């Protein structure tokens, strides 16, 4: 009897109606991110013990041996963006304790061979508050974005940014949606070759390791 051809299919759920998916990672295959940060016995690996969907998530944890305040770790990914320059970035994350973090940053930098365009969101658990990086390269609080994510539960983020016009469009965290359409992003001249750099970063508030799991990472161009 002949064997029927099969293949694995991932259902992404609701995505914007136009454009194309640049990159999607549910961390069930090869590790597509690069680790950057403090050396030591950090953890940066596919984690089969917890996932939003599927079989794995990306586990990130700062060092435990010799842990110190401001230890840091980042997940870095390079991809490309077309001339539309309109990006929707989303994903899921959880932590056993956000209070062990000094700051969590979701950072997206687009180089178009003429300029660097940077859109970045930062969450400070001690406040607690979300902020955006403004046109003067200063983290500025987002009005009303003060909800504290609960530990050990999955949270959803989505950032929409127009790199062509150098403006944010919107930011969503869980069920809260914030209109950022009047806010300019940071930009300056740079001749670095064309690419999109995505970074998930966090550092520690004290001499205790902090952790984050990342899943359903999606870059969508509209």
- Number of beta-strand segments: 16
- What is the molecular shape? globular
* Unreliably modeled segments: 3-9
Helix content: under 10%
* Class inferred from helices and paired strands: mainly beta
CATH topological fold name = Jelly Rolls
How does CATH name the architecture? Answer: Sandwich
Order of helices and strands: EEEEEEEEEEEEEEEE
Radius of gyration: 18 Å
Number of helices: 0
Task: Specify the biggest β-sheet.
Answer: 8 strands, antiparallel
The proportion of residues in beta strands is over 45%
- Averaged pLDDT: 92
**Distance N to C terminus:** 45 Å
Structure report:
The chain is mainly beta. It has one domain (20-221): Jelly Rolls. The chain is 0% helix and 50% strand. The strands form two sheets. Strands 1, 3, 4, 6, 11, 12, 13 and 16 form an eight-stranded antiparallel sheet that branches. Strands 2, 5, 7, 8, 9, 10, 14 and 15 form an eight-stranded antiparallel sheet that branches. The model is unreliable at 3-9 (pLDDT under 50).
């Amino acid at each position: 009897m002949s064997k029927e051809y099969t293949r694995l299919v991932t259902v992404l759920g609701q995505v914007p109606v136009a454009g194309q998916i640049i990159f999607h990672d549910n961390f069930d295959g090869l590790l597509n991110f690069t680790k950057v940060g403090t050396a030591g016995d950090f953890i940066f690996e596919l984690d089969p013990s917890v996932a939003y969907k599927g079989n794995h998530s990306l586990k990130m944890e700062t060092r435990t041996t010799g842990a110190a305040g401001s230890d840091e770790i980042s997940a870095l990914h390079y991809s490309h963006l077309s001339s539309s320059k309109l990006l929707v970035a989303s994903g899921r994350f959880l932590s056993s304790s956000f209070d062990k973090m000094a700051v969590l940053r979701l950072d997206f930098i687009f180089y178009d061979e003429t300029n660097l365009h940077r859109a970045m969101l930062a969450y400070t658990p001690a406040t607690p508050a979300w902020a955006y990086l403004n046109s003067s390269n200063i983290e500025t609080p987002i009005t009303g974005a003060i909800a504290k994510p609960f530990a050990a539960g999955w949270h959803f983020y989505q950032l929409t940014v127009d790199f062509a016009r150098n403006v944010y469009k919107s930011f969503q965290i869980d069920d809260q949606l914030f209109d950022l359409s009047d806010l300019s992003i940071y930009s300056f001249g740079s001749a670095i070759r064309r690419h999109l750099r995505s970074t998930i970063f966090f550092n520690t508030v004290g001499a205790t390791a902090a952790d984050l799991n990342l899943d359903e990472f999606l870059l969508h161009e509209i």
